[in-house]
Design goal:
The structure holds three protein chains of three kinds. Chain A is an alpha/beta fold. Chain A folds into two domains: 199 residues, Rossmann fold, CATH 3.40.50.970; 112 residues, Rossmann fold, CATH 3.40.50. Chain A contains twelve helices and 13 strands. A five-stranded mixed sheet of chain A has the order 3-4-6-5-11, sandwiched between helices. By secondary structure, chain B is an alpha/beta fold. Chain B contains six helices and six strands. In chain B, helix 2 links the parallel strand 4 and strand 5. The chains are: A alpha/beta, B alpha/beta, C alpha/beta. Strand 7 of chain A pairs parallel with strand 2 of chain C, so a sheet runs across the interface.
Chain lengths: 349, 179, 245
């Protein structure tokens, strides 16, 4: 299945029958797919007038208690970032898929990882975080999209799937997980789903405005506690060739990590050991895993390999805490470094 | 063992479709597979290309600079990609539209006039199927009968096109093996 | 003898923060009365704007969401699409709806979203301190048009009801005012009609209400009413601009 279509189908399989979106390359196939598939499944499909409006359609629907998601690509996500801030502030669960393309501005339409910092550090105004997951294959995109809904509900926080254009455009075999619980959590405590719906006299209010500084401060503390809990419970990563006595440790995610895997295999056949940590969650970032792997005695240097001009490298440096030198290697704008280029870089270390 | 096939030609020549059918056939054989299109403005009538990566283990980089094989449907594609093909790979040249050679002596070069063959088989629109079957017959990258089933399945909704495409497949295979 | 006048159930006991002479309180009450009369409080979701009415959720006693500037119609779309059985209304001012939220309101109206918009037009940005709005009258002085609105420079005030009524999609689009008791009953009837169309799933419904802002206009409440009647009503004429078949 093509990545974009698989992402759309995964949401339906996860019991998300509500999709609002605005077309943008390279992920418009999600909307095309769901414009047919959602009505079949008895769900809601609506093409909004802009990404800004879409982010608020998502907000309204999420606040009313529905499982809801959207997909977009970098410039579109920037427009949605306004609504995402409100959704995070109002503590509503929603899933955003960013199939990244090159930037800044209109940039290009080819695969990129240039929105790492936006997704993990500062997608909108105010003090909040998204739970960010990064798939490296179509299969993983499916699994992450499906998991994203219960996670968004667990934390009452937006979850972002950060893929690149290749994940969306590529076709790979896919198996949809079975026995997935599609039942959304009970949201009667907070959702504006109508007092009659929840048989309650207590009205619910969904808002992000706290004019009293003390109240806003404690609200921000509530949010912070959620992000701390994510750090305790949701960090995910994968090791590659870290059983070996590697000299170099790579940190890479998404499509880029597959290129690194090929490079590592090639180097291994030449008798040169390289290990890799592949973060599956970018926020929370697997700091300890990177630190531990970098601390290995045989390891003399660490490199963050990215399809960007050095964004994740800041988190890698922070994790390694000066124990080993940290380098960056990458390319931008739709140029995906080849295994040969990664090998050359590693050999230069 | 991993091998990669690059399909390249004008937009509208059915490049993505023949690549997709090959990907399905490989999947049917139980292989790992990735179908990686070029996308964007070049989809609109320019050079389109699409790579199929087939492997017996998990596929690493899906971005391939140097494919094992090339199916070139037009001249710009041949000129652009022939130098990239790995030694001992197959380069299929659509001689209906390409009057030159690949200029490589370390590959298995075959020339098939896919447009003429497709026209004779019933429709020039099945040129991509002729090229695909010629390529598969020559490279043996997947089992030919499995490929045939996948072509049938692709046209299941337009069943009247199946006999025509089966004929295109036979002719393509024969042309490749005679070459 | 029973009570002849009491607070609608759809309002809370909270005292509003609105300025003396402001008409928001009247409009809130009309909406609450309509909701009570239709018996829909348990399935109504209101959406508060950014503007003076941002805290409107404190005064209504049913579910409420708070929107970002101008985005209430997109939020209402989201709710109504996933829960068509809920009664949804947006409550928006002229800065919110006619300036930053023009895209959202036009497209929601054009899609024929089955919710209700109450649009309070007092020709000025209230909450941010009396700046010029798209609805500010020619020559009207505001904190960002200190010499009066220069229409050569910033164009004429936007007649939103007429603009929305120009769309081809069927809708209920009317303008009313609450400047005097004789107008108030008409306004309430329109609000009730708008909610009734929504209840029937018939069409998008839009009630513009010409209002005052004594504080930012720098007038007394009575002077404000006079000014609105003399300056605004001839330009923003009350009337029915579109009625569904």
């Amino acid at each position: 299945m093509k990545g974009n279509e698989a992402i759309g189908e995964a949401a339906i399989r996860a019991g998300c029958l509500n999709y609002f979106a605005y077309p943008i390359t390279p992920q418009s196939e999600v909307a095309e797919y769901l414009s047919k598939r959602m009505p079949e499944a008895g769900g809601v499909f609506l093409q909004g007038e802009s990404e800004v409006a879409v982010s608020y359609m998502i907000f309204g629907a999420a606040a009313a208690g529905a499982r809801v998601f959207t997909t977009s690509s970098s410039p579109g996500i920037s427009l949605m970032s306004e609504g995402i801030s409100y959704i995070a502030g109002a503590q509503c669960p929603a899933v955003f898929v960013n199939i990244m393309r090159g930037g800044p501005g209109l940039g290009g339409i080819l695969p990129s990882q240039a929105d790492y910092l936006q997704a993990t550090k500062g997608i909108g105004h105010g003090d909040f975080r998204l739970l960010v997951m990064a798939p490296a294959s179509v299969q993983e995109a499916v699994e992450m999209v499906m998991e994203a809904f219960p996670l968004a509900e667990k934390y009452r926080n937006p979850v972002m799937i950060l893929g690149d254009g290749l994940i969306g455009q590529m076709m790979e075999p896919v198996e949809f997980p079975e026995n997935f619980s599609v039942e959304p959590s009970n949201k009667d405590e907070w959702a504006t789903n109508g007092m009659d719906t929840r048989k309650s006299d207590q009205r619910n209010l969904v808002k992000s405005l706290f004019l009293d500084p003390e109240m806003l401060n404690s609200h921000n503390n509530v949010l912070r506690e959620k992000y701390e809990r994510m750090k305790r419970e949701e960090i995910r990563f994968e090791n590659y060739n870290t059983d070996s006595d590697y000299n170099v440790l790579l940190v890479s995610y998404g499509t880029m990590s597959r290129v690194c895997r090929t490079a590592i295999d090639q180097l291994k056949s030449e008798g040169f050991e390289v290990g890799m940590i592949r973060p599956l969650t970018l926020y929370p970032f697997p700091e300890k895993a990177v630190e531990d792997a970098a601390s290995k005695e045989s390891c003399t240097s660490v490199a963050s390999i990215e399809m960007s001009m050095g964004q994740m490298v800041e988190d890698v440096e922070r994790s390694v805490r000066g124990k080993k030198p940290v380098q960056w290697f990458g390319k931008c704008g739709g140029e995906v470094p080849t295994p040969e280029e990664v090998i050359e870089f590693i050999k230069s270390l | 063992m991993q091998s990669e096939v690059m399909f390249a030609g004008f937009g509208g020549q059915g490049i993505l479709l023949s690549a997709k059918i090959l990907a399905y056939a490989a999947m049917k054989e139980g292989l790992e597979v990735a179908w990686v299109p070029s996308y964007g403005p070049e989809m609109r009538g320019g050079t389109a290309y699409c790579t199929v990566v087939v492997s017996d283990k998990l596929i690493g980089s899906p971005i391939i600079r140097h494919p094992m094989h090339l199916v070139a449907m037009n001249r710009p594609s041949l000129e652009k990609f022939a130098p990239m093909v790995k030694p001992n790979g197959v380069i299929l040249i659509n001689s209906s539209l390409i009057s030159i050679d690949s200029g490589r002596d370390d590959v298995d070069e075959i020339k098939v006039s896919v447009n003429e063959i497709a026209g004779k088989a019933g429709s020039v629109r099945s040129a991509n199927i002729v090229a695909l079957s010629a390529f598969v017959a020559r490279s043996k990258i997947v089992n030919f009968d499995i490929l045939r089933e996948c072509v049938k399945k692709e046209f299941a909704k337009k069943a009247k096109l199946i006999p025509l495409n089966m004929k295109a497949m036979d002719e393509g295979r024969d042309a490749a093996l005679k070459n | 003898m029973g009570k002849t006048f009491q607070k609608p159930e759809a309002l809370t006991d909270q005292i509003t923060h609105y300025c003396p002479g402001c008409t928001h309180g009247i409009i809130h009450r009309l909406i609450a009365e309509v909701i009570d009369e239709l018996g829909i409080r348990g399935r109504t979701v209101g959406i508060a704007p950014v503007g003076c009415a941002v805290l409107a959720y404190n005064y209504f006693s049913f579910d409420f969401q708070e929107a970002a500037h101008g985005r209430a119609p997109a939020m209402a779309t989201g709710i109504k699409r996933v829960r068509p059985d809920l009664m949804v209304f947006t409550y928006q001012g002229d800065g919110d709806l006619a300036s930053i939220g023009m895209g959202e309101i036009i497209h929601a109206a054009n899609r024929g979203e089955k919710f209700t918009t109450i649009f309070v037009n007092n020709a000025v940005y209230g909450m941010t301190g009396g700046q010029m709005a798209p609805t500010t009258m020619p020559e009207q002085r505001t904190t960002t048009s200190p010499f009066g609105r220069d229409v050569e420079d910033v164009g004429m005030p936007i007649k939103v009801a007429e603009l929305i009524a120009a769309l081809q999609t069927p809708a209920y689009v009317v303008r009313r005012t609450v400047l005097k008791p004789k107008y108030i009953n008409k306004a309430k009837k329109a609000i009730k009609q708008a909610f009734t169309y929504q209840l029937e799933g018939k069409c998008f419904s839009f009630v513009e209400i010409v209002s005052t802002c004594p504080t930012n206009w720098g007038l007394t409440p009575l002077e404000s009413i006079k000014w609105a009647e003399e300056k605004m009503l001839p330009y923003y004429e009350p009337g029915d601009y579109k009625i569904p078949d």
